Amino acid sequence: MNRIFGCALAAISLLAVTVPADAKGCIKGALVGGATGHLAGHHGALGAAAGCVIGHHEANKRNNPQPSTTGSAPQPARK
Questions:
Q1: Is 5 within the bounds of a domain?
Q2: 41: exposed, middle or buried (Cβ count in 10 Å: 0-12, 13-18, 19+)
């Protein structure tokens, strides 16, 4: 089991070096999600897919800050 995990980790590490820039956050999310899914009931592939989606979303959210619309409206001047 440790040998399989080591080989998978080495393959993912090599893949992470060659991933294009548009997959930012996906690899990190997939690693965390896969490990969590495996520990939560042997659903590593499902966890990796979900982690990839969430990691990619979070990486894009940090790069494109949107102004908050809650509570940021200017207050009318009081007389």
A1: no
A2: exposed
